[in-house]
């Protein structure tokens, strides 16, 4: 764990940002659905305690949809039911001086639109640590974390199986 943290700090110092995933499949999408489905609708549920802008729901839906449109290109329509439990934004002053982190924790359920059956369930977690070199990028936390949610779901649900 200490080695992992040391590597993350070194990466931040050199590049400005480092990304860590805490996502996992609770109930993975079947291979035939992964290759033959697309996300046609996104429903977002989030705690009122999350400190987000009035535009966040629209930002989240549009950015997640854009990511999913690139990886889920089949014909069978699925609905994404996303629930956000945590969304922490880096403090720009602290990020400019030392480093900061944007954190997202939530879940993603994929539902077959035709049958109403839940076909997959995922925990989605992403932490992006940025140094003073990345203060501008880190300041766009809602966009950054929305993109990350979509990317994590692409990797977990719609990535082609590894050859081997």
Describe, in plain words, how this protein is organized in 3D:
- The protein has a single domain, classed as Double Stranded RNA Binding Domain, CATH 3.30.160.
- The chain is 40% helix and 37% strand.
- It is built from six helices and six strands, in the order αββαβαβαββαα.
- The chain has helices at 2-15, 31-36, 56-71, 92-97, 135-139, 141-158, and strands at 17-21, 24-27, 37-46, 76-88, 99-112, 118-131.
- Strands 1, 2, 3, 4, 5 and 6 form a six-stranded mixed beta sheet that branches.
- It starts with a helix and ends in a 6-residue tail after the last helix.
Question: Brief description of this entry?
Answer:
By secondary structure, the protein is of the alpha+beta class. The chain is built from six helices and six strands.
Here the CATH topology equals: Double Stranded RNA Binding Domain
Give the CATH class.
Alpha Beta
Strand content: 35-45%
Question: What would the principal axes of the Cα set say about the shape?
Answer: globular
Number of helices: 6
Unreliable residue runs: 3-15, 92-98, 132-139
Overall helicity:
25-40%
Head-to-tail CA distance between termini: 29 Å
| Rg of Cα set | 17 Å
Average pLDDT metric? 80
Note the run of SSEs as H and E: HEEHEHEHEEHH
């Amino acid at each position: 764990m200490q080695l992992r943290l040391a590597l993350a700090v070194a990466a931040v110092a050199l590049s400005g940002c480092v990304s860590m995933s805490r996502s996992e499949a609770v109930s993975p999408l079947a291979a035939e659905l992964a290759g033959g489905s697309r996300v046609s609708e996104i429903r977002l549920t989030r705690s009122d305690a999350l400190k987000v802008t009035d535009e966040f729901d629209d930002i989240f839906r549009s950015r997640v949809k854009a990511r999913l449109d690139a990886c889920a290109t089949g014909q069978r329509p699925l609905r994404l039911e996303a629930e956000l439990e945590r969304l922490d934004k880096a403090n720009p002053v602290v990020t400019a001086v030392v480093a900061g982190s944007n954190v997202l924790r939530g879940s993603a359920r994929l539902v077959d639109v035709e049958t109403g059956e839940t076909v997959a369930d995922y925990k989605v977690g992403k932490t992006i640590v940025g140094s003073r070199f990345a203060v501008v990028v880190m300041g766009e936390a809602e966009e950054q974390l929305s993109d990350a949610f979509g990317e994590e779901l692409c990797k977990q649900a719609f990535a082609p199986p590894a050859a081997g």
